[in-house]
Write a structure and sequence with these properties.
- By secondary structure, the protein is of the alpha+beta class.
- The chain folds into two domains: 159 residues, Ribosomal Protein S5, domain 2 (2-Layer Sandwich), CATH 3.30.230.10; 117 residues, 2-Layer Sandwich (Alpha-Beta Plaits), CATH 3.30.70.
- The strands form two sheets. Strands 1, 2, 3, 4, 5, 6, 8 and 12 form an eight-stranded mixed β-sheet that branches.
- Helix 1 links the parallel strand 3 and strand 4.
- Helix 1 packs parallel to helix 2.
- It starts with a strand and ends with a helix.
């Protein structure tokens, strides 16, 4: 059996960070929206017992058992007693360690494929597996844009219109940010001051966009602030860092405005070694598609005739 799906990237339109929890994670309230940018994920299910194999062409450092997609597959097999061998192939389009949720989305894509291959009515168990792999993974199992609270386990669907965005991802390693670093920098910036209240989910408005991690990250990666200015100068209505960064995005009035901005920014983006994407938010997560070879389809047709 061969299953195909897309693993969409995401942006945080709102990210509020609360106090540190006893489990070592922070309480959060975030508004996430999936994008039409994403990885192509293929899962092959063997007829026989075997291991989980994960390959990412062109990025051998992401191969193997440490990949979140492979970890999700192993967790699914352990929870539901699946022994069949699994082969996972991921064609990466979403930048790695970019604040766009690429690894988490790959893991969720594998879980969606396996839930299709081995149907289970236990939705709660699937969400528990997702959360054990990563805080963003449950969101990618949901239907679309959502407010996410707690550590990532509480989801509430949100009405987010289709937004035209330009993403800028700095490829220079000196600007990379690990999620753990971003949260630690926020804790250091707050010191002993009282943590602001997280607020509550509310209807989406551009004026409500914000990211608590942005200021402490810009204090240590000042060049990222220049990328926000670059988007603003190209006509973005709002510009924000996504998640723990370093990717930033601008919201534009429509697809044409976003494309014009990309042309305006293009030369500077090349000089600064930025990956640039013109994308839109989407309102539904992708489906899983069973794949059969044209040869097998042709043979069935011949037999019927």
């Amino acid at each position: 059996m061969r299953l195909l799906t897309l693993a969409p990237a995401k942006v945080n339109l709102v990210l509020r960070v609360g106090p540190l929890r006893p489990d070592g994670y922070h309480e959060i309230l975030t508004l996430l929206a999936p994008l039409d940018l994403g990885d192509r994920v293929e899962v092959r299910v063997s007829r026989r017992a075997g291991p989980v194999t994960c390959r990412v062409p062109g990025l051998p450092e992401l191969d193997g058992a440490a990949n979140l997609a492979a970890r999700a597959a192993e967790a699914f097999r352990a929870r539901f007693g699946v022994r069949r061998g699994l082969f996972i192939r991921i064609e990466k389009r979403t930048p790695v360690v970019a604040g766009l949720g690429g690894g988490s989305s790959d893991a969720a894509a594998v879980l969606r494929c396996l839930a299709h291959a081995f149907p289970t009515p236990d939705r709660r168990a699937l969400l528990e597996i997702a959360l054990s792999v990563g805080s963003d993974v449950p969101f990618f199992l949901g239907p679309g844009p959502a407010w996410v609270a707690g550590r990532g386990e509480r989801l509430r669907p949100a009405d987010v219109p289709s937004l035209s965005l330009v993403l800028l991802f700095p490829r220079r390693r000196s600007l990379s940010i690990r999620a753990g670093e971003a949260y630690r920098w926020l804790d250091e910036a707050r010191g002993h001051a009282a943590t602001p209240p997280l607020g509550r989910p509310a209807p989406f408005r551009l004026s409500r966009m914000g990211n608590d991690l942005q200021a402490p990250c810009l204090a240590r990666r000042q060049a990222i602030g220049g990328l926000l200015d670059l988007l603003g100068g190209a006509g973005a209505e709002r510009a924000l860092m996504s998640g723990s960064g370093p990717t930033v995005f601008g919201v534009f009035s429509g697809p044409s405005a976003a494309r014009r901005a990309a042309l305006t920014i293009g030369k500077e983006a090349r000089r600064l070694k930025l990956s640039m994407f013109v994308v839109r938010t989407v309102r539904r997560q992708p489906r899983v598609t069973p794949w059969r070879s044209p040869r097998s389809a042709s043979s069935r047709s011949t037999r019927r005739s």
